[in-house]
Design a protein that fits this description.
two-stranded antiparallel sheet; alpha+beta; 8 strands
């Protein structure tokens, strides 16, 4: 330690400069596990990892642990050490918060380069080392552990490097746009990043339509928000087709030959895609697409809706008189442009007879009518 003495006007001893290179390196305590009094087990049982840590440091650095260690959330083992479990945080992610590198199953986790252990040193330096995938997980973990400053720093890094991290031209990377959105869309703590991800998905629907998570029923609420958004760059018949694809995937018993389906099978599909039906603006679907792509599944549509659509396709009636056309700006604009271009969607020659010949009579039970 280098101390330079300075005399004040009162000839009192003061310290002008202190070289703090001698300051205690708490990271060493983590590396050597000296005097640890707590064991934190993170991750699922199959891929879990235990960390030997110190309650005093954790309570001082992290409000989450300060609260947890002062309650009955934790317990002690036979040796008197505190034991704590966080199964929803991956070991590699927790290591990024706690230490620089860990080894598990002969695999080294060094996703990002940390200048020091964040909790133990209070310092974090993120260098681009191909580890952006775990930054998102680290962001979620930091928020859960009430480490506000760390969470904000990671969020800033993600947003500043958004185009690289979520490179939509790289198929391996772009698939995580939808996955990440589904995990944070409904949380107030992640609204800034969620909004950015949503904008990307609305402009490039293929990012979620081609995602392996698209057919996951657990993501239905997030999917409904996207498919019902006014700025979604998809036409209505595409939304209908994707809703059918999603619904069929939820019931493996449904035959691929839908022409052979019984009423029971149609009812099963209707229940699966019910949340999507209110989102589809059928009046923006051409009569040809309606005939070939919607009518084969007519039993999942309420009878009143089918009658209104028949009236719409066979006349030049303003769709606003039959349907709620007030939603949204972009899709409403598309409707107006379509009406002008197609002369109020006048029926093409021969279509009147086609539409009259198709069966409109079968009722599909008590369905909700989405107006």
């Amino acid at each position: 330690m280098n101390i330079r003495r300075a005399q004040s006007n009162h000839s009192a001893l003061s310290f002008e400069t202190i070289d703090c290179s001698y300051a205690p390196n708490f990271s060493k305590l983590l590396e050597t596990s000296d005097d640890h009094d707590m064991i934190i087990r993170v991750g699922s049982q199959a891929m879990s990892k235990s960390f030997k840590v110190h309650t005093l440091i954790l309570k001082a650095r992290c409000n989450y642990f300060k609260t947890a260690l002062s309650t009955n959330w934790s317990k002690k083992d036979s040796s008197g050490r505190v034991t704590f479990e966080k199964p929803n945080i991956e070991p590699s992610v927790f290591a990024l918060i706690l230490s620089r590198v860990i080894n598990r199953s002969d695999k080294t986790y060094n996703i990002c380069t940390l200048k020091n252990s964040y909790i133990y040193s209070g310092q974090l330096k993120i260098e681009n080392s191909g580890g952006d995938s775990d930054l998102f997980e680290m962001y979620l973990a930091a928020d859960e552990l009430l480490m506000t400053n760390l969470a904000e720093s990671i969020r800033t890094h993600i947003l500043d490097n958004y185009d690289r991290i979520y490179n939509t031209f790289d198929d391996k990377i772009s698939t995580k746009v939808y996955d990440h959105y589904c995990r944070i869309y409904n949380s107030q703590n992640f609204q800034i990043l969620a909004s950015r991800l949503k904008t990307t998905l609305l402009k490039q629907p293929k990012l979620f339509l081609s995602s392996t998570s698209f057919l996951n029923s657990e993501n239905i609420d997030a999917l409904v928000r996207l498919l019902g958004h006014d700025d979604l760059e998809m036409c209505e018949i595409e939304i209908w087709e994707e809703a059918i694809r999603w619904g069929c995937a939820q019931d493996v018993s449904l035959s691929k030959e839908f022409s052979r389906w019984s009423n029971k099978e149609f009812e099963s599909l209707q229940k699966k895609i019910d949340p999507f039906l209110a989102l589809i603006r059928f009046y923006e679907i051409s009569s040809v697409d309606y005939f070939y792509k919607v009518m084969p599944y007519k039993q999942i549509l309420r009878k009143e809706l089918r009658k209104d659509l028949k009236k719409f396709y066979l006349t030049e009636m303003d769709p606003a008189l039959l349907f709620n056309c007030s939603r949204g700006s972009k899709r409403a604009d598309k409707l107006r442009e379509s009406l002008i271009a197609e002369d109020s969607r006048s029926v093409e020659p021969g279509e009147s007879q086609i539409l009259n010949d198709i069966g409109w009579e079968a009722d599909c039970g008590n369905r909700i009518y989405y107006d």
